Amino acid sequence: MIESKNDLMEKVVSLCKRRGFVFQGSEIYGGLSGIYDYGPLGVELRHNIKQYFWEKFINDRDDVYGVGAAILMPEKVWEASGHVGKLGLVDPVVECNICHERVRADQIEAIVDHQAKHKKEKIEWSEPKVFNLLVETKLGASEETATKVYLRGEITQGVHVNFKNVLDSMHPKMPFGIGQIGKAFRNEITPRDFLFRLREFEQMELQYYIRPGEEEGKKQFEYWKQIAFDWYLGLGFKKENLRFRQHAPDERAHYAKDAWDIEYNTPFAGWKEAWGIHHRGDWDLKRHSEYSGEDLSYYDEEKKDRFIPWDIECSGGVDRAFLFVLLEAYTEDELGGETRSYLKLSPRISPVTCAVFPLLKNKPELVEKAREIYKQLKKEFGAVVFDDNGNIGKRYRRQDEIGTPWCLTVDFETIEKNNGVTVRDRDTGEQKRIEVPELIEYIKSQI
Ligand code: GAP
Fold it and tell me: Which of 83, 245, 273, 280 maximizes ligand 1 atoms within 8 Å of its Cβ, making it the mutation to test the pocket?
């Protein structure tokens, strides 16, 4: 049974490794702090989360376009965006006088953890310094001619630098949005809490460009806050575990006129940021116009006026959504007199949609029929599993543990009486018989 909140986090971390969701990055070489790899089930779950974002924020709408910008961007982009230098992507650090390790000055947990490392020895901390989190590298064949480039610290700038390209190729009417999903990199000083604070992570973002104006800005900001909240709920969260929190003026990023987070009530540290909704005003387009020399204004054909649009941004972390989804879904209960753990995942995102079993492995007619059904379902849903290993109870538990919503069993009634298959529900353990030709429709209706 889950005994404490930390216990829940530990169970999720252990499940992730044991069942192939998440592994330490380059584990056989000792790993890198704040870097993780996703295993076979992890990539499916991530894919489904991202697909759900793409569906709701891009495909379901007429006013949003998608792009896929490059990770490497020249230094000038980051000067324009304000991320290079003291304004942007910086954290305050202090240095320990005993081991010279640097930790975040504004994270009390990091200070406390570090003190614990030195037991009762008294640490004298240095004065706080500003540390820039952008990850830099070089492109070019020789040291002398190589140019400094940055791995993007937020995916946002890839959208802004393509604003004009989208205008010229798609001719959108105001207001319109550009969405993107992709990797971002930050040299976090204290990566921690498993997938929560990483050095390499993925973001899902929408930049929604609007006509400048305080009233329009407020209206659009409220609208997108709600869309982002509803999207998060759609991942299967209980409403009471999510909340909005407005940033205090001194907490806002340099580009933001207003900023709200959607927070999740985590078991490891209480309320923590899941998404940020930012009112970026004309900060980015104006700065890129200045720094690139390109005119990034919009001409409104109907109103016959030209302006630099304002930007309302929804920015979410894929890895954080992934972690929070697992923490929310992890459940232990008693079923049929046995304790079990299962992931109560929404069927929309579960890594496996359904599993197909022949009741017995050594009865070729059962195996053949189960394989036939498995192939049909796999063609339709992709993520379908065939399992004939061990007794049925064990097979159910294996699927419960990874959150598979339905297990379908081919038994003698299927063959002898042409009487469908049993479909077992993950959460209740209840079974019903469904005719084979109706299986696809049944599962679709439940998703
Ligand atoms: N473009 C705006 C932006 O990047 P942010 O609040 O710095 O804003 C947005 O990041 C989201 O990206 C966060 O809400 C979080 O979900 C995710 N994120 C940011 N830093 C992260 C990190 N180090 N590890 C994992 N996810 C992170």
Answer: 273
Return the amino acid letter for 221. Answer: F
Please give the pLDDT value at position 5: 66
Whose CA is closest to 186, among 316, 34, 76? 34
- The pTM for the full model equals 0.94
For ligand 1, the distance from its centroid to the CA atom of residue 152, given in whole angstroms, is: 12
- Kindly give, in sequence order, each residue whose CB lies less than 8 Å from that of residue 186, ignoring residues fewer than 6 positions away: 89, 133, 134, 135, 153, 199, 201
Decide whether any atom of ligand 1 lies within 6 Å of the 275 Cβ.
yes
Q: Which of 127, 124, 128 is nearest to 98 (CA)?
A: 124
Determine whether the shortest distance from the Cβ of 201 to ligand 1 is under 6 A.
yes
Q: What is the pLDDT of residue 91?
A: 82
How far apart, in whole angstroms, are the C-alpha atoms of residue 72 and residue 284? 18
Low-confidence stretches of the chain (pLDDT < 50) are: none
pLDDT value, residue 433: 96
